[in-house]
Amino acid sequence: MSELSGLKPDRVIKAFQRAGWKAERQKGSHVHMTKEGNRNILSIPMHKGRPVKQGLLRDLIAKAGLAVEEFLKLYK
To answer: Is the pTM for the entire model greater than 0.90?
Structure first.
């Protein structure tokens, strides 16, 4: 089982905030995050009772310019 499986959306958002990302707005069930100096927008789904899927999480981590190991340290 991957270390990225079963991660909760609210804690994922907090981890990105620790990396300098800001939650700008929420549209429906997705939180949009931005960071000064980075052109990407991270859109994190906040579906009740469901973790963020691994493939999406890997993509978000890459867009944020982080390594998986760095993200996991911020998550914990």
So the answer is: yes
